[in-house]
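Make up an example, fold above all:
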Amino acid sequence: ADHASYTNLRGVIELRNAVAAKMRAFNGIDCDPEKEIVVTVGSAGAFACLALAVLNPGDECIVFSPFYSYHVNSLKLFGATPKFVDLQPPDWSFSLAELEAAITPRTKMILLCTPANPSGKVFTEPELRSLAAVAKKHKLWIGTDEIYEYITYGKPHVSIGRFPEAKDRTITMSGGSKTYAITGWRVGYAVGPAGIIDRMSVVND
């Protein structure tokens, strides 16, 4: 069908329209498929684009531990510094005081993975609202990897990007790899404010 030339750097519009419909229906996030979505090389690729678009060498990113090694290894590769906040078993809760203590003038982003790899932690709405308040207070980006969003074993999945107080600073990342068992296709996407999606799209391209 002559679909062999370079595509739009954000991904084909048919897929972006489908992602926008899914984000509205499942995540509660309204987004413009023309300006607020970029299709990436998996959700891991979305995170790489996000890190390169918002972090300079020496900047810090809050990471909840136990963590997904790709996130931390990518941050280190790009010269950013992960600052760890421990999740406490058995419910993998975190301390707001510890989160606040980890933030410095070099902190630029809080990274979430919900449901989390490897702990399986599903962040609750009260937890996410408290994180949104901290991010707003300190003017931080929120990156949230939600690739396991349908695998919650009965717990509700809540996207932090649906909250009005977080929407303008949150980049939601997901993809088809886990839910549809198409890891080899490397189809991921990121959804967020137009300005940061512009920058991520250039990195992605």
